[in-house]
From TrEMBL:
Membrane-spanning parts: 14-41, 70-95, 107-127, 147-166, 212-233, 259-281
Keyword terms of this UniProt record: Cell membrane, Membrane, Transmembrane, Transmembrane helix, Transport
PANTHER family xrefs: ABC TRANSPORTER PERMEASE PROTEIN, INNER MEMBRANE ABC TRANSPORTER PERMEASE PROTEIN YCJO
Subcellular location(s) per record: Cell membrane
Residue stretches making up the ABC transmembrane type-1 domain: 70-280
Signal sequence segment: none
Chief place where the protein resides: membrane
Family matches, as SUPFAM superfamilies: MetI-like
Family designation: Belongs to the binding-protein-dependent transport system permease family.
Top-level taxon in the UniProt lineage: Bacteria
Entry protein name: Carbohydrate ABC transporter permease
Length: 296
């Protein structure tokens, strides 16, 4: 079934989108609704859920570990944006060029993107093992060799591993955007005497505005929902120093069998990620979808 617009162009009707809409409703909207309902109930996974009103939410905000975990989630997210954004922009712009051996080097660099987060975490857990890994043979560089022994070093490891795996994804986004920049802009800048650095800051970066915003939103959502990396690398330790909200939700649900509180944490993460993403979109003007090709 197709519909005809005022311009005479035929467009697919809703029937074509029905399979995707049903899939999204069953595996995204319905679970989200159930989690919201469970956040107002007490349930241990075996007995019938019992309505508890705002009890789970009140305990959540009275829990110092939860407040600390939320702060750690935001910290890791900020670190991800600060570290990955400049790296991915520079690498993406470079990969969009025509340098010698660029294709081979890009293919090697994108290998981490093909691995699962669990596989990457297991790999780096072995590499950074304080007894058998690289730190055991480089105490001059890492002190006692236990990078998981203090909060600062453990958070640094989490930020590094996440950047190692996901920077290639954002690089790919910026590479595609950089290749779409009209060459006439660079030719005009060369005629005016602008060098590579001025061209990058006055042409390339403005043209990458939409890809940068998209990349940042993905970083925010990914950073707030990181789980498997923490589970494998630090298990929330030392103590609760790397217990982020997603990992704390796992502990509440599958270790303490408190699915009501775990659901409240999940809903809170969805709300925080949504609010931050909307703020980024609003402040950046991305919601107006202004073209970077204006004036061409």
């Amino acid at each position: 079934m197709t519909t005809r617009s005022g311009t005479g162009v035929s467009r697919p009707g809703f029937v074509w989108a029905a399979p995707a809409a049903v899939f999204f409703g069953l595996f995204a909207l319905l679970p989200l609704v159930l989690v919201v309902v469970l956040s107002f109930a007490e349930w241990n996974g075996l007995s019938s859920p019992r309505f508890s009103g705002l009890g789970n939410w009140q305990r959540l905000f009275d829990d110092p570990v939860m407040l600390k975990s939320l702060w750690l989630s935001v910290l890791l997210t900020v670190l991800g944006v600060v570290v990955q954004s400049p790296l991915s922009i520079l690498l993406g712009v470079w990969a969009a060029g025509h340098q010698r051996n660029r294709a081979v080097l890009s293919a090697i660099y994108f290998v981490p993107l093909l691995l699962s987060a669990a596989a990457v975490s297991v790999l780096w857990r072995a590499v950074l093992d304080p007894n058998f890994g690289v730190p055991a043979h480089a105490e001059w560089l890492v002190g006692d060799g236990n990078l998981f022994g203090t909060q600062s070093s453990a958070i640094g490891v989490l930020a590094f591993v996440s950047a190692w795996q996901f920077t290639p994804l954002h690089t790919l986004i910026h590479q595609g955007a950089a290749r779409a920049v009209p060459q006439v802009l660079y030719q005009a800048a060369q005629i005016d005497g602008a060098g590579k650095v001025r061209q990058f800051f006055h042409i390339t970066l403005p043209q990458l505005r939409n890809s940068i915003i998209t990349s940042m939103i993905l970083m925010v959502v990914g950073g707030l929902t990181t789980f498997d990396t923490v589970l494998i690398l630090t298990q929330g330790g030392p103590g609760t120093d790397t217990t982020i909200s997603a990992y704390y939700m796992y502990q509440k649900a599958f270790k303490n069998f408190d699915y009501g509180t775990a659901s409240a944490i999940g809903v809170l993460l969805v709300l925080v990620a949504t609010v931050i993403s909307l703020i980024v979109v609003r402040l950046s003007g991305y919601d107006r979808m202004r073209s970077t090709m204006e004036g061409l």
